[in-house]
């Protein structure tokens, strides 16, 4: 990617209008310049129209022609999938446009993420106490994935697992299970306390209908929704 | 924190137990803060006699405390006109917890259960009344009854489960006056609660008997006057007072009541131990229990942040004293202490440990709120909420969806929902130059979230309690139906009634544990960030 953005793109700048894009019309050239000036961020068609002040049909036609000449490409913008977004062919769309590593074709690659997460949980479960390096190392050695992960990517995955309450973050104290890990290192352990895996213990409030009721703010002792008329209560107490 | 639904729940409890008139008086005090007799009469539109007897009932049951303000100028008619009545919201709520209090006492001193039951039932009793109650029950010989009651009472006093009633009408210095007027003006603002908190604390502080006196009674056993104190300190003071007071108090009636504070302290410890057991393991909970047991008599307030520091040896000894703890080695105890996040301060060769109880309460609160979010809004909301709760500062929408792997489209919708239901705080930032001009930042605002959750819990408790009453009414109607119109057989109906009552009542009991977590176990001043 850096190669493309580097000297080669710079080199191309001058000869372009003469060679591949030598046959560009005036409108196409203006449009191409605008798109290219946005580098890896690309630009939305409406913004193009506004910046170039070209009429709609000209823009549409020019875009088609530029695309046919492989000078620009259409990319999916995760922020707004409905918008037509273009970027010059030599650039790779930025993280803001694609959504980053975990996105594929503008969608969150949940299948891949889930698979990787499960794999990480399995590693942590087997090792009982695992460090980030330990997890990364095991993944690399297992060859379960044909992609190389960076420590940062694995950290992202592990952090999400902590938020999911699948695993817990603990600091090593150098004793017992932690004896091989330096004191103060962040470690991960599986949380499966309180019964079912992954599910935290259900609190007192969450175990009664009112605790999960989206209408609780509309419920009053003598109102239309009230504890006497509540359907959730009736269902709950149906023995 | 006295929230809107908290007041409604309190009034509901009062109505259930003492009827509408008493509840009306109580409601006007809860809503408006301390009032004089005349003002109560005016606001409730009841007759002075009705108000008077209601107040007497409320005072008898420790739900109201009278106090008067120190007079500075002669504008007021007389000292009587200035007596104000303050509703004690906490004590009103404690009425839901009597069964829990009884359970604590019966697990420690089973023989004292009836004595406490009498105190809870009647609010305040003299020794003589207690003896009479015992006599009625057991129909034993007089002397015997007195001895039993006295013996049991001393046990309860020593454990601080029973205390002397506070002074009837303490006099407060004037500064309070400004606060009360300010309070009446902004009756509905949330600020009122904070202010009344300070008044309540001042009044209760002024009314409380000296520690030495609080847990003692004069027992006239034959010829000598014996006095029992459970509190080690102030013995000197005690001795000095003995002569002066014993004469006076022999005629004066000593009123006793259950000491809710001590019970709440026990329940708080119990909740912490339980939380540690589920979050960590049995070992950690055994160690925590032992530590709390060892410092029990030293703890002065319900809401202590940190337990009194103990040396490792003392902790180990205490652990060995309990049956479950006998299998633990010193290393295991030390590991559990680390697990508990104990801050050990090494002074010389002695390691001493104390436990951050506030932290445990906080974690338990988090669990409770998170589980509501999970059940009500789903897993994605749960993840985002946990992220915000963990970071504790403003986070941008994009960053939230990236960190939690929630679809960029879904994240803002869910966050917005949590915000509109009062679970999140949101801020908009508009940037002039950038492509995306508006950013939304989200945050968990702990103090306001806790108040919101607590209010919902009060609401839910009120709902459960109302439903209990409704089910009872329905049952009565069913019984009165003619035989040919009965849908269920008697056995079926009986079974259903039992199930319904069991589910509702046990849910209410557990919900009350959660209420205590947010309302009674944390220092309100600490909530204000």
Brief write-up:
The complex is a heterodimer of chains A (239) and B (529). Chain A is of the alpha+beta class and 239 residues long.
Structure description:
The complex is a heterodimer of chains A (239) and B (529). With 239 residues, chain A is of the alpha+beta class. Chain A folds into three domains: 2-101, Winged helix-like DNA-binding domain superfamily/Winged helix DNA-binding domain (Arc Repressor Mutant, subunit A); 109-190, Orthogonal Bundle (Arc Repressor Mutant, subunit A); 208-239, no CATH class. Chain A has helices spanning 2-13, 26-37, 45-52, 56-68, 95-98, 110-127, 132-142, 151-163, 209-212, 231-236, and strands spanning 43-44, 72-75, 85-88, 103-104, 107-108, 130-131, 167-171, 186-190. A three-stranded antiparallel sheet of chain A has the order 1-3-2. In chain A, α2 (26-37) crosses α4 and α7 crosses α8 (151-163). Chain A is flat, with a radius of gyration of 28 Å. Chain B is of the alpha+beta class. Chain B folds into five domains: 4-93 and 170-184, Arc Repressor Mutant, subunit A (Orthogonal Bundle); 96-168 and 208-258, no CATH class; 262-355, Arc Repressor Mutant, subunit A, CATH 1.10.10.10; 371-444, Arc Repressor Mutant, subunit A (Orthogonal Bundle), CATH 1.10.10; 453-522. Chain B is 62% helix and 11% strand. Chain B contains 24 helices and 15 strands. Chain B is globular and about 80 Å long. The chains are: A alpha+beta (239), B alpha+beta (529).
Question: Any idea what the radius of gyration of chain B is?
Answer: 27 Å
Straight-line distance between termini of chain B: 15 Å
User: What would the average pLDDT of chain B be, to the nearest integer?
Assistant: 81
Share in β-strands of chain A: 5-15%
**Tally of discrete structural domains of chain B:** 5
Helix count of chain A equals 10
Bulk shape of chain B: globular
- Largest Cβ-defined interface: A-B, 47 and 54 residues
Apparent shape of chain A: flat
**Number of DSSP strands of chain B?**
15
Q: Biggest sheet of chain A: strands, sense, closure? A: 3 strands, antiparallel
Strand content of chain B is 5-15%
Structural class of chain B: alpha+beta
Give the low-pLDDT segments of chain B.
176-196, 219-250, 524-529
């Amino acid at each position: 990617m850096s190669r493309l953005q580097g000297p080669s793109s710079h080199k191309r700048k001058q000869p372009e209008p003469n060679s591949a894009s030598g046959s560009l019309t005036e409108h196409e050239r203006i449009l191409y310049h605008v798109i290219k000036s946005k580098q890896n961020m690309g630009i939305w068609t409406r913004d193009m129209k506004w910046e170039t002040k070209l009429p709609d049909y000209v823009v549409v036609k020019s875009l088609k022609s530029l695309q046919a000449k492989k000078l620009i490409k259409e990319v999916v913008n995760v922020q707004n999938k409905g918008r037509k977004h273009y970027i010059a062919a030599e650039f790779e769309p930025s993280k803001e446009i694609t959504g980053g590593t975990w996105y594929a074709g503008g969608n969150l690659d949940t299948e891949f993420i889930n698979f990787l997460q499960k794999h990480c949980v399995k590693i942590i479960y087997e090792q009982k106490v695992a460090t980030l390096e330990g997890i990364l190392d095991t993944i690399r050695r297992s060859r379960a994935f044909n992609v190389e992960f960076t420590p940062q990517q694995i950290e992202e995955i592990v952090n999400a697992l902590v938020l999911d309450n699948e695993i817990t973050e603990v600091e090593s104290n150098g004793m017992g299970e932690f004896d091989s890990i330096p004191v103060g290192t962040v470690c991960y352990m599986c949380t499966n306390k309180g019964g079912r895996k992954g599910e935290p213990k259900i609190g007192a409030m969450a175990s009664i209908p009112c605790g999960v009721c989206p209408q609780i703010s509309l419920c009053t002792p003598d109102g239309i929704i009230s504890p006497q008329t509540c359907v959730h209560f009736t269902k709950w107490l149906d023995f | 924190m006295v929230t809107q639904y908290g007041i409604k729940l309190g009034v509901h409890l009062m109505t259930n137990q003492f009827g509408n008139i008493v509840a009306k008086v109580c409601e006007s005090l809860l809503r408006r803060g301390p009032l004089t007799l005349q003002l109560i009469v005016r606001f409730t539109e009841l007759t002075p006699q009705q108000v008077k007897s209601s107040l007497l009932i409320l005072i008898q049951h420790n739900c109201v405390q009278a106090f008067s303000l120190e007079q500075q100028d002669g504008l007021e008619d007389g000292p009587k006109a200035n007596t104000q009545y303050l509703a004690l919201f906490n004590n009103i709520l404690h009425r839901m917890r009597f069964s829990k209090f009884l359970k604590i006492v019966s697990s420690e001193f089973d023989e004292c259960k009836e004595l406490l039951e009498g105190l809870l039932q009647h609010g305040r009793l003299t020794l003589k009344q207690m003896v009479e109650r015992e006599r009625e029950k057991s129909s034993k010989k007089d002397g015997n009854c007195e001895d039993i009651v006295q013996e049991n009472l001393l046990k309860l006093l020593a454990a601080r489960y029973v205390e002397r009633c506070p002074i009837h009408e303490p006099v407060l210095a004037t500064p309070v006056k400004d606060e009360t007027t300010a309070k009446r003006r902004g009756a509905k603002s949330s600020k009122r609660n904070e202010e009344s908190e300070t008044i309540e604390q001042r009044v209760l502080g002024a009314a409380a008997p000296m520690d030495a006196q609080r847990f003692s009674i004069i027992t006239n056993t034959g010829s000598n006057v014996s006095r029992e104190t459970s509190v080690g300190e102030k013995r000197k003071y005690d001795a000095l007072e003995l002569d002066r007071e014993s004469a006076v108090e022999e005629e004066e009636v000593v009123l006793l009541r259950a000491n809710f504070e001590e019970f709440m302290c026990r329940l708080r410890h119990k909740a912490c131990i339980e939380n540690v057991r589920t979050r960590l393991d049995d070992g950690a909970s055994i160690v925590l229990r032992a530590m709390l047991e060892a410092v029990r008599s030293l703890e002065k307030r319900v809401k202590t942040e940190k337990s009194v520091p103990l040396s490792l040896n003392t902790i180990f000894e205490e652990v060995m004293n309990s049956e479950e703890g006998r299998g633990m080695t010193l290393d295991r105890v030390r590991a559990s202490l680390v697990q508990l996040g104990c801050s050990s301060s090494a002074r010389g060769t002695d390691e001493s440990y104390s436990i951050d109880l506030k932290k445990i309460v906080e974690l338990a609160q988090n669990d409770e709120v998170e589980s509501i979010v999970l059940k009500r809004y789903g897993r994605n909301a749960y993840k985002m909420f946990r992220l915000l709760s963990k970071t504790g500062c403003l986070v941008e929408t994009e960053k939230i969806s990236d960190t939690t792997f929630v679809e960029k489209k879904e994240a803002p919708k869910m966050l917005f929902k949590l915000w509109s239901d009062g679970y999140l705080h949101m801020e908009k930032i508009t940037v002039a130059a950038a492509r995306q001009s508006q950013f939304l930042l989200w945050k968990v605002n702990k103090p306001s979230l806790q108040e919101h959750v607590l209010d919902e819990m009060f609401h839910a408790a009120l709902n459960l309690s109302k439903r209990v009453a409704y089910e009872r009414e329905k049952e009565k109607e069913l019984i009165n139906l003619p035989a040919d119109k009965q849908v269920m057989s008697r056995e079926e109906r009986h079974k259903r009634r039992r199930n319904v009552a069991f589910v509702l009542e046990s849910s209410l009991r557990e919900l009350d544990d959660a209420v205590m977590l947010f309302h009674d176990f944390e220092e309100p001043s600490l909530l204000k960030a």
